[in-house]
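Lab notebook, bench 4. The sequencing result for the construct came back, and we need a structural model before the next group meeting so we can plan mutations. Quick request posted to the team channel:

Model the 3D structure of this chain.
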Amino acid sequence: MADSEETGSQQDSTADSAGNNESRRGFVSILAAGIGALLGLFPVATGVFTFLNPLLGKRKGGDKSIRVATLDSIPATGVPVRVPIVADLVDAWNREPNQPVGAIYLRRASDGSGVDKVVALNAICPHAGCSVGFDENRDVFQCPCHTSSFQLDGEIIHPSPSPRGMDPLTVDEDKLKATGEVWVEFVNYYPGKAERTAKE
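Done. Here's the predicted structure in token form:
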């Protein structure tokens, strides 16, 4: 009788052990599957992030100035000189180096102390976006599209269809004094508006 109880208890112990082993195997299998799924998500997430990053990323700040000329290349007489603006075009995934993006007028002007400074004006007419020319005979900027005229400092000569004067651009005075190079923060503005609104 004792033998049969002992045998029964061994069978119960073996059954419990087998059940525990199956339970452990099931847990290990679930754990392995979970870890495998998690590890499999990393490459997918990295790929999605890499693909979307140019679209979601913000533009980097910092110096937006472009080197456009040297002081020596601008006439000391105060006559404006037209300079093309060449820059790298960058969209979400593409970069096109050295593309024409506009034009500006540069003019030397004295600040009253005998030191030359450079005045920069966008060459686009603020009325309808045509390209402004310079009339040396009249000493004025003239738009060929709708007869808008502007003084040497870019102010409107009335009457004029243009809602504002020519758009001034910032010249880096520190670089000009230190190196004699003209660096300009080039900005295009929307035409047809009285207030200046920069294009993105």
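The longest helix spans residues 2-56.
Will bring this to the meeting.
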